[in-house]
Amino acid sequence: MHISIKTRYFMSHFLAVVLVSGSIGTYFYLSALDSLIENLRGRLANTAALAAESMDVASFEAVRGPGDTDLPGYVTGLATLRRLRSTNPDIAYVYVMRRTGDAVTFVLDSDESEAQALPGRPYPDPPAALLAGFSGPSVDDKLYEDEWGVFMSGYAPLRGGQGVYLLGIDMRDAEVGRKLWRLRLSGMVSLSLSLGLAFVFATVLARRINRPLRLFMDACAAVAEGKAGARVDVRTGDELERLGVAINDMSMRLEDHELRRTQAEARLIRSRDELEVRVRERTIELSRLNALLVHEIEERKRAEEKLFQAAMTDTLTELPNRRAMEQQLTAQAARVARGGRPFAVLLCDIDRFKSVNDAFGHEAGDEFLRAAAQVMASSVRAGDMVCRWGGEEFLFLLADTDLEGGLVAANKLRQAMEALRVPVDGFLVARSISVGVSVCADCRDKEEVLRLADEALYEAKNSGRNQVAFRVLAAAAAASA
């Protein structure tokens, strides 16, 4: 069977182009398909992990069965899941599950239809990816079908509930299918274009078969000028092919040299680009970790400040508590021991306070204590301190104050409390106070000045209440005299 040279050239180049373009198209199609699946899985994993960080396990720990749907934790958690689902049209359902032993049950389900899974509903035959989601982010490696439909799902453990709670996100199968259809359409268009290009390319080469001598002459001229790639690929089995081999031999060394140089430059450029990418990625990661560390330090400082305030504050009156006052007394006694100015201590006790509790109840007594605390807090100067010492007793620390100043302050405080009226159940409740005053001018420690103030308060009580009495060390009394 005789086949013309023109036909041979057309068929050989057409098939060669089809084979190359088809291989390249197939490679890019499979790569794009893998990239799509991995992109979907990555989006699911990231979305599930971010959403899991926003959920607090403690808010729905009590949600155990269908009867718990009225609990605030369930209502708030369900609203959060539905809000998350509404922000992304690709998401079909968002849910929270609990693992108890080998059993997996629903806690929250964003489904708004009658098929919604209520708390405590078991999930039969959970896939391996779901079980892995209790300990770390996980994504299905394929589509799964259950009573709610066909989905690809991502899972992540909830913050503070690792091993017990996870958050799951289901992506609609229609969305996955739509993306795959688009990818297949792109592959078909690309293949069609490749076939058309192959036909045109082969036709052009076949038409040029009548000018082979011109091609060989141009190739020889290119080799003479030192241009790489001046080869002639002729596979006809005749004299044209042998002539092409001769031309290729002449340009081989030049082409080999140019190829090595080009490859070296490409490797250098690739290494540079890879280094820039690694540096940029590392910089971004370090910035993120630094921001997280700064945030954690700030949160810890705020927590420590709140704990310190709680440890130093009386919860009923919101005044400093006994521990806070003892620290200040220790500091003031140390300052006096170093030659500092004296300070006064006023120990106050509300007279006949027990009768308020007996007559009106403890809530009324607490209200009276809060009102008394406000009067006392407004009676001190800047730099002075008042605390709830215990029960109905309050202690004042007056810095840079001698006995005379302490007595003046005590009488003003006694008069202010005498004028206090607290409405309780239609009655105006009033109670006086007894005050014991002591001064630390050369005291050894805070226990000494507190003991003297307590003795003075005892004297004021025994003198008929609504009184001010004082006790000082003998040396201090002699100095005052």
TrEMBL record:
<dbReference type="Pfam" id="PF00672">
    <property type="entry name" value="HAMP"/>
</dbReference>
<keyword id="KW-0175">Coiled coil</keyword>
<dbReference type="GO" id="GO:0052621">
    <property type="term" value="F:diguanylate cyclase activity"/>
</dbReference>
<dbReference type="InterPro" id="IPR029787">
    <property type="entry name" value="Nucleotide_cyclase"/>
</dbReference>
<feature type="domain" description="HAMP">
    <location>
        <begin position="207"/>
        <end position="259"/>
    </location>
</feature>
<protein>
    <recommendedName>
        <fullName>diguanylate cyclase</fullName>
        <ecNumber>2.7.7.65</ecNumber>
    </recommendedName>
</protein>
<dbReference type="GO" id="GO:0007165">
    <property type="term" value="P:signal transduction"/>
</dbReference>
<dbReference type="GO" id="GO:0043709">
    <property type="term" value="P:cell adhesion involved in single-species biofilm formation"/>
</dbReference>
<dbReference type="InterPro" id="IPR000160">
    <property type="entry name" value="GGDEF_dom"/>
</dbReference>
<feature type="domain" description="GGDEF">
    <location>
        <begin position="341"/>
        <end position="473"/>
    </location>
</feature>
<dbReference type="InterPro" id="IPR043128">
    <property type="entry name" value="Rev_trsase/Diguanyl_cyclase"/>
</dbReference>
<feature type="transmembrane region" description="Helical">
    <location>
        <begin position="12"/>
        <end position="30"/>
    </location>
</feature>
<dbReference type="GO" id="GO:0005886">
    <property type="term" value="C:plasma membrane"/>
</dbReference>
<feature type="coiled-coil region">
    <location>
        <begin position="247"/>
        <end position="306"/>
    </location>
</feature>
<feature type="transmembrane region" description="Helical">
    <location>
        <begin position="185"/>
        <end position="206"/>
    </location>
</feature>
<dbReference type="GO" id="GO:1902201">
    <property type="term" value="P:negative regulation of bacterial-type flagellum-dependent cell motility"/>
</dbReference>
<keyword id="KW-0812">Transmembrane</keyword>
<dbReference type="Pfam" id="PF00990">
    <property type="entry name" value="GGDEF"/>
</dbReference>
<dbReference type="InterPro" id="IPR050469">
    <property type="entry name" value="Diguanylate_Cyclase"/>
</dbReference>
<dbReference type="InterPro" id="IPR003660">
    <property type="entry name" value="HAMP_dom"/>
</dbReference>
<keyword id="KW-1133">Transmembrane helix</keyword>
<keyword id="KW-0472">Membrane</keyword>
